[in-house]
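Training component of the fellowship. As part of building independent skills, the fellow (R.M.) carried out the full modelling exercise for a liganded target. The chosen ligand was S-adenosyl-L-homocysteine. The inputs are recorded below so that the supervisory panel can assess the work.
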Amino acid sequence: MTDPTTAARHLMVDSQLRARGVTDPRVLDAMLRVPRHEFVPASLRAEAYEDHPLPIGDDQTISQPYVVAVMLESLQLSPTDTVLEIGTGSGYVTALLAELTAQVFSIERHPALASEARTVLAALGYANVHVFTGDGTLGLAAHAPFDAVLVSAAALSVPPTLLSQLREGGRMVIPVGSLDSQQLQFIRMINGQPAVSLRDSVRFVPLISDHD
Ligand code: SAH
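Fellow's submitted model of the complex:
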């Protein structure tokens, strides 16, 4: 008998991702593999594969699958990349990054969320992820430069420290804007300068810096 969550993931990938134009086979495969229901609270498991964000505690949310796919596709990740994620939250995107790259460094400011994410990621056998508790706007200088940076919370402007930790040719995706209105920015470092292109309109929880 087919596992019902496998069927739910196939439906999610076909109806929410492929149908809306996500084509990167590595991203689609990773989203077929990662058990999203393991990253949501037990009471919401039945909704794990639906087309919207879900609450994960501490006033935070696990992002909508489609938005996650768009962000991952934009980064054009390769299996040798080292990536930085800001806003671990549930750890779902961390797991996807772990499927798509060599090393994942992830930062979460809520200690309880960071700890739960570490537990789930370890239980699922992800050995190439490192979850830190702290202010992600500062990045992780000790492990820079990164091939890619994925920010899962909305910034009023792009934190300069994160840009400085991207290698030449490195990519970043980040929602930028106010609480109600944000746009995904895709950034590529070219000759030491960020080249920015604007993508989808989105709605994320705010990126909260403790160091303004
Ligand atoms: N990708 C996650 C998204 C979680 S929501 C998921 O799908 O589960 C965004 C997360 O960013 C929240 O958990 C929030 O606590 C965290 N966050 C906000 N500001 C932060 C900061 N300055 N540093 C690290 N994490 C931050």
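The panel noted the following from the submitted structure. The radius of gyration is 16 Å. Strands lie at 54-57, 60-62, 82-86, 103-108, 129-133, 146-151, 166-177, 182-190, 193-202.
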